[in-house]
Amino acid sequence: MSALQRGSIAIVGAAESDLGKVAEGMSPADLMAQATVRALADCGLKLGDIDGLFGAASQMRNPTLQLREYLGIRPRYQDGTHIGGTSFQSHLIRAQAAIEAGLCNVALIAYGSTQRSVGRAQASPRESNPYETPYRPFLPSSAYALSASRHMHLYGTTREQLAAVAVEARRWAGLNPQAWHREPLTIEDVLNAKMVSHPFTVRDICLVTDGGGALIVTSAARARTLAKPPVFVLGSGECLSHHSISSMPDVTVTPAAFSGPKAFEMAGLGPSDIGVLGLYDAFTINPIMFLEDLGFCPKGEGGPCFVDQATGTDSSLKINTNGGGLSYCHPGMYGIFLLIEAVRQLRGERGPAQVEDCQTALVHGNGVVYSAGTTVILGTGDSL
């Protein structure tokens, strides 16, 4: 297969399902379908237009089969790749390949979870790992805590710098009516919260919510005929690293260090060209390391960057403008919500949270415990 072509496809529809804690009896498929109907309304297409289906879910063994049955559609192409929270960035890459190859014309990417309603243990059961389970880690918190502790040791990253990530996310959440937590948050609030796995308190860790999301993707040519301004895929890159944190080559270097350069090369852009950033923030250490590995600051300087953001010393980086997984929503796998927010920023639809003259966005998804990383760069028509 030839290399993917810059700008050959676009996201034309984007929507969430109900979020937070959903109505009793709703299933992940209900939420996927609800988001799908809303995403179709967003772009003016119909269920019958969908001929490519992409999905992943922790509560559904065969999500594309179940969603096909639920929606009553017969796609010509499907992909159920599951690499954790970055599955949906990966689906976007595969949808582009399928559309370019003529395997489908209109692709649906969908996700749903009732994690808050049914409990995390039931929604995302842990597999036994012969190399780690005997030590009884509290996963995934213990794994990310290991990474954070090493980063603190090597680079002098502080607890206050980690807390600043949560404070900055909450500041953006205050501008988002859909965010689960909107009340003000201070660094002291984060530091004084209940300890979960050192150095993380509960405020350093993502929410546990229900929710789903959907994206509608089609060719650039068709996208230009639809209801909303298309958001083009300019570049992408993917890296698979490991499964267990104990097999990670360096716990302070994430797959973003490898997927990011691929995405920038395809897009013909660099970090200084990006208008808004969506960085997977299941834990406060995540955006710090992604910011470094994607080249937005030198290694070891991600923490001070977030302090500058949270204190208003520097507002040049616009990161997780919906409030992120720390304050907006986090239904088990968060990657699709990064893409939804990027689409809305590039369309100019974010109201008080709108980034001025936003023409490009970078989203970086994270799967399992830094096990997989996928970087996608999106842009408006003016960025082509």
UniProtKB/TrEMBL annotation:
Signal peptide: none
GO molecular function, one term: acetyl-CoA C-acyltransferase activity
Xref: CDD domains: SCP-x_thiolase
Residues annotated as domain Thiolase C-terminal: 237-380
Keyword field: Transferase
Gene3D superfamilies (alphabetical): 3.40.47.10
The organism's place on the tree of life at top rank: Bacteria
Protein known as: Acetyl-CoA acetyltransferase
Organism whose genome encodes this protein: Pigmentiphaga kullae
